[in-house]
Write a structure and sequence with these properties.
The chain has 114 residues and is α+β, with helices and mostly antiparallel strands. It is 54% helix and 12% strand. A hairpin with a 2-residue loop joins strand 1 and strand 2.
């Protein structure tokens, strides 16, 4: 697994990237950066951690509106997809929890971007 250095809201992050996944990761980074900058630029939220949570919620909501057949599960998201498939009446909280766990891991030990 190689590493890519990316910028999200002006902050540098070193991310692990599977071989051949560069384009998808950079596209994901662009989506996150755009979502976070849009929230920041609206001026109502200033704390980076709150901006990150709101952006994650917005992206998760957008993802939930997509047809599931159009987005095949990757190895990383397969456990979440399997959980959702076994609980079709779920409200997406498993996916949201997975995204929040990934955000927590990205934020580091103290759970803050700052």
């Amino acid at each position: 697994m190689k590493q890519l250095e990316v910028q999200i809201m002006g902050q540098s992050y070193l991310l692990g990237c599977p071989e051949g996944g560069d384009a998808r990761l950079l596209e994901a980074v662009e989506r996150v950066d755009t979502a976070m900058c849009k929230i920041r630029d609206a001026g109502k939220v200033r704390a980076r951690d709150r901006i990150a949570v709101l952006a994650a919620l917005n992206l998760a909501f957008d993802l939930s509106e997509r047809p599931t057949a159009a987005t095949p599960a990757t190895t990383e998201t397969a456990p979440v997809a399997a959980s959702l498939a076994s609980n079709p009446a779920g409200d997406g909280s498993l996916l949201l929890n997975s995204l929040l766990e990934r955000l927590d891991a990205a934020l580091g030990e103290d759970g803050r971007l700052l």
